[in-house]
Every structure is written in structure tokens, then in C-alpha cells.
Write a structure and sequence with these properties.
Helices cover 62% and strands 1% of the residues. The two termini are 25 Å apart. Keywords: Membrane, Signal, Sugar transport, Transmembrane, Transmembrane helix, Transport.
């Protein structure tokens, strides 16, 4: 068992590194890279390169190879077989778990991980575009809609069964996301009215970047929501692969980072064509390269983002191994809250009533819906599913089928946390995440 001091360190590390991912990315978006000496701020060019930011994320995932290489070198010196650290603590439900697949993912089959890497590339790039238009707190909260898309795709492609309370939880999540997006769209007008009441000229006011126009915020929310479809597809594909092959999650994350990195490099000559790069600064990769290289703040923040993503995967693995998947899910929620508090402290956002109350309400609905879906809170009794075969009278076979489907729902509810943008709930390959059901009370 880890010491009582070690567990808080892991939880704090997960919150700090997870929060820094989004905060560093938003800070990077705010950096001036061209015409910075012009006294007219309207002529300043900010760093708007979502593809390069996605590349930073894949570099961070590739860093997950480091502990794997270290373990391999250490065991090679000892002339012992190579094994990644396994969880010594066995879950109380180990006897009921399905045995992990025995066929290892090796050889050309490793290329199967290119499919989720492609989904990760698309989804992350779209989210980076959305972050350009939205406050960082709204960006992080809107990403909570992932549970909705994963739930729906799991029913369609993995043939999972969801109880009524889980469908209601998905609707609750969608309502929370809608309130968060709506509150963000009201920020601009509220800020103008506040400045006018204070007698501050709007043209001369130090308006922060987190006060975009209504249409921009709504466009940003749309990009983030649309990205969740690709991220959810990534999770479903990964689960399909992991159900057939055995692979250490840190190794899988590293390969996804490698394949995503190579994919971007393959597209660099195409995106560098003037006919494409001239249409949008988002895909002007040569320009983005020079902006990054000749702007130290952008360059070093990119290094910080890569390392924070790698460390977030490590802390997420450690929390799942030494504490529980439930603790990881709760910690991920605290991460969203910490991002909001930090952005308020940095002056990137303002508490504007009653708009902030709408944001709090939306965030509350989002958290409650996610917790309800993951069985972290008990559903209301009126929609609570049967938890005992005695509820099905006179039909033992149907009761047994009900219990089996309940186990499938539990597995469906064990959704990966946002993992430094990785779909894997990074944990030892021989450990099976089992989300607690209603009778035994992780993104």
C-alpha cells in the first residue's frame, strides 16, 4: 500500500498537470507573434496554430515511452523478462472480472492504433480551434459533453445497454453544456454594460481576451462539441482494440503519439501549399513554425504543454492503480473547477451576475449528469434499475440475463478521463476498470 503522503501527491499532481494543459494552451493563444511593436493592438497578430498545438500534444504522448524504455533497460540489466509494473492490489470483484485478452498487440497489428490516433488528431485540432474563441473554463466544461457521445456510440457500435437513469444523465449533461455555452455567449454584452456604468470608454478599456463576441463563442462551442464526436469514436475504437489484444496502456498512448506525429508530418507538404495556407492562418504551418521558433514564450510554453501531458498520463495511471478509477473521475472534475478559479484569478474571466450563476448551474448539471452516468451517485428511486433477480418473478433465466446486462452497463460507464487528450484510461494491462454499480457504490 502506498503511504498516506504519496496518495495526496498523486492527486495534486493530476490536478496540477491536467489544469496546466488547458491553461498553457490558452496562454499560448494569447501571445503576440507579429506586429507586436505596433501601438495599435488591433494590428497585433496572436498565435493561432491549432495544428502545431496538436503536434505538441502528440509529442507529450510520445514521452510516455520514457518510463517504458527505462523499465526495459532496467530489466535487461537484471536478465529478467520485461514487465511493466503491475497493480499489487486486487479488487474485491476480481473473481467476477473477465480475463484480459491473451493475444499481444505486436507486429503489423500495432498499426491498428493509427485509427484512434487519426481520431485524436482531428478531435484535438478542432478543440484547439474552439479554444481560440472561448474562455478556457467554458472550453473545459464543454468537453464534458464527451460522456454523451461515448454513451451513444457505445450503444450503436459496442451494443451496450443503458438504463433509463443513464439516458436521463446524458440529457442532464447536454442541458449543462447548453447552459455553459449560453452563459459564455452573454459575456460580451455584459462586459460592455459594466464598463459603461463605470464610465470607462470601451475603446480604451483593457478588455481581456476572454471577452469574445457572441457569435465567436457559439462557433467555438460548436467546434468543441463537434470534436467530441471524434474523441468518442477514438474511445470506442480503442476499447474495441483493447478487448481483442493485450497492450500496456502507456505503450499504446506512446504509439498513438508517434502515429499522430507522423500523420501531421505527412500532411505538412500539403498544408504548406499557398492555395491552402492562404485561406486560413490555422493551417499555415510554415508561418506557424516561424512564429513558434522566433517567439520564445510560444516555444517554451509548447515544451511545458508536452511535458504536462506526459506527466498527466503518469499521474492518471498512478491514481487509477493506487487509489481507484472513481478517484480519478472525481479528480478530473476538480481539474475543471481549478481551471475556472485560476482563470478568474489571472483576470482572463470575470464574475458577472447573473451570467456567472448560469455558468455555475450548467457546471453543476454537467457534473451531476456525469456522476450519475458513472454510478458515482445513486439515481432517484423512481428510475433506479432492478438490482436483484428477485424483482423478476418466476423467470430465473431472464433475471440472470438482467444481471449480465447490468455488468455490461457497469463496463460502459467506466469512461476514460481526459487524459491529456488521450482516450486510454492508462492503467496496467492486466487490470480491468470496473465502475461501481448501484449495489456497490471512473473522464
Amino acid at each position: 500500500m502506498p503511504s498516506s503522503f504519496f496518495i495526496p501527491v498523486l492527486l495534486a499532481g493530476m490536478i496540477i498537470t491536467g489544469s496546466s494543459n488547458s491553461l498553457w494552451s490558452k496562454w499560448q493563444d494569447m501571445q503576440c507573434v507579429e506586429n507586436c511593436d505596433d501601438p495599435n493592438q488591433a494590428h497585433h497578430v496572436l498565435y493561432e496554430q491549432p495544428v502545431w498545438q496538436t503536434l505538441q500534444m502528440f509529442l507529450g504522448e510520445m514521452l510516455c515511452f520514457l518510463p517504458v524504455i527505462y523499465t526495459w533497460l532496467r530489466t535487461r540489466r537484471q536478465s529478467a523478462p520485461v514487465h511493466l509494473p503491475a497493480d499489487a492490489d486486487e479488487d474485491a470483484h476480481t473473481s467476477n472480472k473477465l480475463s484480459p485478452p491473451t493475444q499481444e498487440l505486436r507486429g503489423w497489428k500495432i498499426l491498428l492504433l493509427w485509427l484512434p490516433a487519426a481520431c485524436d488528431l482531428t478531435g484535438t485540432t478542432l478543440m484547439n480551434v474552439g479554444l481560440l474563441y472561448t474562455p478556457v473554463s467554458i472550453y473545459q466544461m464543454t468537453r464534458g459533453a464527451l460522456v454523451l457521445f461515448v454513451g451513444v456510440l457505445s450503444v450503436i457500435f459496442l451494443h451496450r445497454r443503458l438504463w433509463l437513469y443513464q439516458w436521463i444523465s446524458l440529457i442532464t449533461v447536454m442541458a449543462g453544456v447548453s447552459l455553459v455555452g449560453y452563459s459564455g455567449s452573454l459575456i460580451k454584452d455584459a462586459v460592455k454594460e459594466t464598463l459603461q456604468l463605470l464610465g470607462v470608454p470601451i475603446a480604451d478599456s483593457p478588455a481581456p481576451i476572454e471577452e469574445p463576441e457572441v457569435t465567436k463563442v457559439l462557433v467555438g462551442v460548436f467546434f468543441i462539441l463537434f470534436a467530441q464526436i471524434f474523441t468518442a469514436t477514438q474511445f470506442v475504437v480503442e476499447e474495441k482494440i483493447m478487448s481483442r489484444y493485450s497492450v500496456a496502456p502507456l505503450v499504446a498512448v506512446g504509439y498513438e503519439g508517434l502515429f499522430g506525429f507522423l500523420t501531421i508530418l505527412l500532411f505538412v507538404p500539403i498544408l504548406a501549399q499557398p492555395s491552402i495556407s492562404s485561406r486560413s492562418p490555422f493551417f499555415d504551418l510554415p508561418r506557424g513554425w516561424y512564429q513558434m521558433i522566433y517567439t520564445p514564450s510560444v516555444l517554451w510554453s509548447g515544451v511545458a504543454i508536452a511535458f504536462s501531458i506526459a506527466l498527466f498520463n503518469y499521474f492518471g495511471l498512478s491514481v487509477t492503480r493506487h487509489v481507484s478509477a472513481t478517484a480519478r473521475s472525481l479528480t478530473d472534475t476538480c481539474r475543471t473547477l481549478s481551471i475556472w478559479v485560476i482563470s478568474l484569478g489571472l483576470g482572463w474571466e470575470k464574475l458577472l451576475f447573473p451570467i456567472s450563476l448560469l455558468q455555475v448551474l450548467g457546471f453543476s448539471l454537467l457534473v451531476y449528469g456525469t456522476f450519475l452516468f458513472n454510478n458515482l451517485v445513486n439515481p432517484p428511486s423512481i428510475i433506479r434499475p432492478p438490482s436483484s433477480p428477485t424483482l423478476v418473478e418466476g423467470d430465473e433465466e431472464e433475471a440472470q440475463g438482467l444481471l449480465e446486462s447490468s455488468q455490461q452497463v457497469d463496463e460502459t460507464a467506466a469512461l476514460p478521463a481526459d487524459l491529456g487528450q488521450s482516450g486510454y484510461d492508462v492503467m496496467p494491462a492486466d487490470t480491468h476498470v470496473h465502475a461501481r454499480g448501484v449495489t456497490s457504490n471512473d473522464g
